[in-house]
Amino acid sequence: MGGNGVLYPILGFASCVAFIYMSFGDLKLSSLPKGLSLSFVERNGSHFILDGKPLYVNGWNSYWLMAHSMDENSRGRVSVMLQAGAKMGLTVCRTWAFNDGGYEALQISPGQFDERVFQALDYVIAEASRHGIRLLLSLVNNLQAYGGKTQYVKWAWQEGIGLSSSNDSFFFDPSIRKYFKNYVLTVLTRKNTITGIEYRNDPTIFAWELINEPRCMFDPSGDTLQEWIEEMTGFIKSIDKNHLLTIGLEGFYGPKSPKSAVNPGEWASTLGSDFVRNSNITNVDFTSVHIYPDHWFHDLGFEEKQRYVSKWVRSHIEDCDKELKKPVMFTEYGLSNQNKDFQASQREQFYRTILDIIHKSAKKKGSGVGALVWQFLVEGIEEYNDDFGLVPWETPSIHKLTIQQSCRLARIQALNQQTGNLKQLCS
Fold first, then answer.
1. What is the mean pLDDT of the segment spanning 381-386?
2. What is the pLDDT of residues 62-83, one digit of tens each?
3. Is 250 noted as a catalytic residue in this protein?
């Protein structure tokens, strides 16, 4: 998932800004709004509520925002991405609020932070507020990219206090739990150097995500991960009662789940997570699911993957409608361009399958409240791209579909002063 920022020539950056200006007509970085008045998003049963009215989400992932905000020559692309998202009617962007150890780390070592990197995160939040975009901020990675739980385990091992060198000791080692709690406390109580608002008091933050794609294969029963989630969600809520909280699950069912047959394979029930059990914790406000048939199936053709995705999405909406009584957001979905049978038109079909099901759920006042595509980029940041990323306005069909979904959801919910972009876009 991405590399470590490369500085591009100023001329090249100017060209990319000019291209987007021409693409969007009235996009003027010099005359952006000073800021929109945002309210905290709340939950009522299986719905998000904003200013007393239902809220449905069409959004995207740009995990690279903090990393790209560290340098004056590159942070302009962050503004371009946020404004472009707003112009497509998107309302939520998911991004990393972590970088542990290694190159340009936010957390250099346990409890030691790089103020320059923290100020880059300040900038991301302030810019998002200016454009009326809310942020779903993820607090740690299960994967090794940007440090993740592997880095925490290394720190404990290097200090001679780690119980195990296994990556999964992140979930059961008391010293590592202490490291992570200190990190969470520092981030949630951070006072933004641009806005003067503590993160926990800033409604620009849509919600916190506890961990990206947690897996604890050390304990396939799921007990270890369940205990960790219960402890950490309780800790976060003790500090911040303003924001919603989700786990960051991929959506797999555990071995004892009656729905384990819905998993993409038997392997998915051995990862130590369980969608329903994990999500049924009191302090978890909404559920999260990821959709990557390319990773899960290597022998199926596109049409077969499409049918499975429909089943996968509907299954989790059913869980939340009937049992969990919580909103479900599909916080990552993507189709790889590395598939041997890949055609550009397949992405539109794949996206539409997911977005149509969410739209139907929203129309019925169901628990399917939104989705965030993985991932959108702007020109000039190829080092952060992967086989799922795209610049949306370079693919007219995706650009049109994205706007269409924003407007379909906007018509279901009552438009209000918080959604000026949608009012203009969908009128």
1. 85
2. 999 999 999 888 899 999 999 9
3. no
Q: Both tokens of residue 101?
A: 């150890």
In the prediction, which pLDDT does 292 show?
Answer: 97
Residue 43 has φ and ψ, to the nearest 5°, of -125, 140
Q: Name the active-site residue from 127, 209, 213, 250.
A: 213
In this structure, are residues 136 and 209 in contact, taking their beta carbons and an 8 Å threshold?
A: yes
Q: Give the separation between CA 82 and CA 340, rounded to whole angstroms.
A: 33
**Domain total of the chain:** 1
How far apart CA 135 and CA 243 sit, in angstroms, is 11
d(CA 308, CA 324): 22
Query: pLDDT per residue over 224-247, tens digit each?
Result: 999 999 999 999 999 999 999 999
Give a yes or no: residue 14 inside a domain: no
Return phi, psi of residue 201, to 5°: -110, 10
pLDDT at residue number 419? 52
Range of the domain at 54: 49-426
Judged against a pLDDT cut of 80, whether residue 418 lies above it is answered with no
Q: Is the dihedral of CA 11, 385, 208, 190 positive or negative?
A: negative
Q: How many whole angstroms separate alpha carbon 326 and alpha carbon 339?
A: 34
**In-domain check, residue 371:** yes
Q: Whole-model pTM above 0.85?
A: yes
Q: HSE (CB half, 13 Å, CA atoms) of 25?
A: 1
Q: Is residue 245 part of a domain?
A: yes
Q: Write out the two tokens for 150.
A: 């592997």
Supply the CATH number for residue 276's domain: 3.20.20.80
What distance, in Å, lies between the first and last C-alpha atoms of the chain? 37
304 is catalytic: no
Selected catalytic residue, list 127, 209, 318, 332: 332
Q: Tell me, yes or no, whether 17 lies in a domain.
A: no
Q: What percent of the chain has pLDDT over 70?
A: 89
